[in-house]
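Worked Example 4.2. Read the sequence first, then its structure tokens.
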Amino acid sequence: MALRREPTARQMRLAVELRRLRDAAGLTAREAAALLGVSSAQISQIESGLTGVSEKRLRRLAAHYVCTDEVFIDALVAVATDRTRGWWEEYRGALPTPFLDLAELEHHATSLREVQFLYIPGPLQTEDYARAIFCDRIPELPQEELELRVRHRMQRKVILEGPDPTSYAALVHEAALHIRVSDRTASRAQLVRLLELSEADHITVRVIPFNLDGFGGTWTPMMLAGGAVPKLDTAVRDAPHGTAFIDSEAQLGVLRALFRKMEAVSLDPARSRDVIYRLTKEL
């Protein structure tokens, strides 16, 4: 089997989980290879995401690692045997890989929770709003890539507007509602669209108001994507070096707690809609 040149974030997550199971069992790669009847190089390739693993081999590995969590094993098998080539594949080689990894993560997520402070969350953006954000990049994007990024962002909306929408909760700081990334017309259109989306049963929009005391320590924009089981949850954060996909249980625990803290101080959905509606009238 040919080695992958660039494993996706989803493929890497499977590799990481298999490595964690082996480490928990106290086995070396050489010992795991002997139990499976393969070379240690093959175990290394599986655990680095450079090659896949069949359902039969994955279940044998789980048995050798004495993993008795059948639901978790089934979830790993689903990842290992998934052959989905989603809409994002048309952008491979045209856009940075994290754009594709994010779309794939959203496609498979059982739920999505997002916090943003300066921008409306991506899946809720209008085309004009998204274009204004990408136009503000330094260095300036070539026109062709700019349009590709806008089109990609618009296609991400399938998770909310498609035939099988994903449960989505957004915490948006009031600052993001005031900041005009484009002109007055585009800003108002974005707020109107946000109001419309907030009425959907599967979408919850809550506003974090300006007038909160002691809020500085929770300034953490992020997305939390629910996995098939909690062990496969993923957090996504923008970092100086690019998009970071976080799967450490310790870090996930901190980010989940931060989300709950921010959710607790945000306005309820009805009051949030009142705030958004008032701002549309002021524009």
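Now turn to a second chain, presented in exactly the same format:
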Amino acid sequence: MPRDSRPAEVQVDTYRRGPARTRVTRVTTGANTGRSFVLVAGIGVASTYFEFLAPLLAEKGEVYALDLPGFGGVPASGEHPTAEFFADQVEGVLDHYGLTDPVLIGHSMGTQVVTEVLARRHGLSHAVLVSPVVDESEATAPLQAVRFVQSTVRESMHIALLAVSAYLLCGFLYFFEALPHMLRYRISERIALGRTTVLLVRGEYDRPSPRRLHSRLVARAHAARRWEIEGAAHCVVNSHAVGVARLTMRHVRDELAPKGRMPAADAVVPPAAHADVRMVLGAMASRVAEWISAARKDEDGVERAKARHARVLWDAYRPSR
């Protein structure tokens, strides 16, 4: 977790593109390496999945974590929730903030969105696809449900609560409207259209994102690296955020081997250095406040809750002096 005591600053904006809205959570610490990071979550879930990854990356550059239309309490736009539609929103965010060569990081269905952006923008140098989906040989709802359950049994209760709350905010009707589009998207074909150097990351027990899919993506991508994190499952981006951050930075510096495995001990989010009952209750309270504000469409309340949650985590995980 954070290696210095600089506080994380959190600002929440709403980007509008026609009737569509995208919530943009910007996390900064004052660090500036010349690179920014744009985080895109999976189907039905929100930028809360990046609660550990965002401040880690913010030590190196500005982070933009997105809640796409229909997710995280953001209203749906009425458009078909396809990867192409969501890619339009991501491109709009890049243009709005003047991000010329950010590192795009997608998780689960978010990898489809990122892949679609990469197919359009050949000027992007590096991207990270964490737990990409869907394996074309298993592109049916029943099979994907089985694979998701197989992976979920390896996840923590914390991740389960994050997922349930996110799905409730999304709404099951919108989730099942987006699901067929996710199943039909052919990521193995679209990745061949990009010119970006891509890092593929999966957890050891990530059943929705099998090794054979990663092999196919590496074979068809313009340039790709593939790494696996031991002990992790589909939500590796949260539970093993330290490893994802380390691999990302080595990838961006082109210091990463083409293929490898990272031990769980080097990747898992460690226990908080300053954990106590007050911290735990504060983190829970800020998260509940965010969910309630999102459900009420109270963007000011969401911004306050996100900023409070970031401060609580930053204080809990800062190194002892």
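Notes for the reader: The longest helix spans residues 277-295. The chain has a mean pLDDT of 89.
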